[in-house]
Amino acid sequence: MSWIGAGIGALFGAQRGGILGSIVGAVVGNWLEEKAREFAKGTMQGKSSSSHAASADELSTLAALSAMLSKMAKADGRISEDEVRYCEQLFDRLSLHGEKREYCVRVFRSAKNDAHSIYEYAASFAAAQPNGNIREVVYDILWELACADGTVSSEELNILRLITGSLRIASSLFAWECGRRGVADSAEMASMPDDPYSILGCPRTASDEEVKRAYREKAKQLHPDALRAQGLSDELLSRANAQMSRLNAAWAEVKKARNL
């Protein structure tokens, strides 16, 4: 069939579960039924398969991203034209066309009014995605969506503060994003200091060698080749540059404090 037919088998063959598996199963299942009906009626004659077979990881990542975008866009009660435009432009930059784009749109619409929270989707994604750097990239995208209409609502800001736990990323990322985007007051910033050790992924009690090792390991994970092996597109890879800048700044602060 198309990449969808191959991808759905891979998804359940890999035993993805939870709400990501549910939404993928529902969206793709309905889609396949529609395709089968179209084929039976002869309306699909002459249509070619649009792309390569999607892997289970790709389906899961696209489902999680689309569902979280949907929940974030509706956080303040309505989805604005600016937010819709941002999602469309993001799909363009991710080179999502044809069936893949339609798949993401269907997930977006399905998640908009379902019973699950954005935190549930984030937690399910984090459980399926072992690379913390990719989870941080998704967090960066959620921030961009929240800022798309020119202002970050209190509901969106609260989600961005709390979802770090669900995504299993450093809570200090919230303060860092607030600072570089200028969207939070000084009290909020002070309550969540940007701890360089948290960014490096090691405790303050770590030895000099342990701190160096933590930095090297994190930098290795952020290398473009390592991220590309995880299936990230060029658009998402470019976002890793901000993470690398943040990592280098944290390392410089720790080196200075320790006289390394």
Descriptive overview:
It is built from 14 helices and no strands. The longest helix has 25 residues, at 234-258. It folds into two domains: 3-194, no CATH class; 195-260, DnaJ domain (Helix Hairpins, Orthogonal Bundle). The protein has helices spanning 3-13, 18-41, 56-73, 81-93, 98-112, 118-128, 132-146, 154-167, 172-181, 186-191, 196-200, 208-221, 224-229, 234-258. α3 runs antiparallel to α6 (118-128), α6 packs parallel to α8 (154-167) and α7 (132-146) crosses α14. With 260 residues, it is mostly helical. 72% of the residues lie in helices and 0% in strands.
Write the topology of this structure.
Blueprint: H1 3-13, H2 18-41, H3 56-73, H4 81-93, H5 98-112, H6 118-128, H7 132-146, H8 154-167, H9 172-181, H10 186-191, H11 196-200, H12 208-221, H13 224-229, H14 234-258
Number of beta strands: 0
In sequence order, what are the helices and strands, one letter per element? HHHHHHHHHHHHHH
> What is the molecular shape?
globular
Q: How many structural domains does the protein architecture include? A: 2
Please state the structural category. mainly alpha
The proportion of residues forming helix, as a percent range, comes to over 70%
- End-to-end separation: 58 Å
Mean pLDDT across residues:
76
Helix count equals: 14
Labels describing this entry:
mainly alpha, Helix Hairpins, disordered N terminus
Compact summary:
This protein is mostly helical and 260 residues long. The chain has helices at residues 3-13, 18-41, 56-73, 81-93, 98-112, 118-128, 132-146, 154-167, 172-181, 186-191, 196-200, 208-221, 224-229, 234-258.
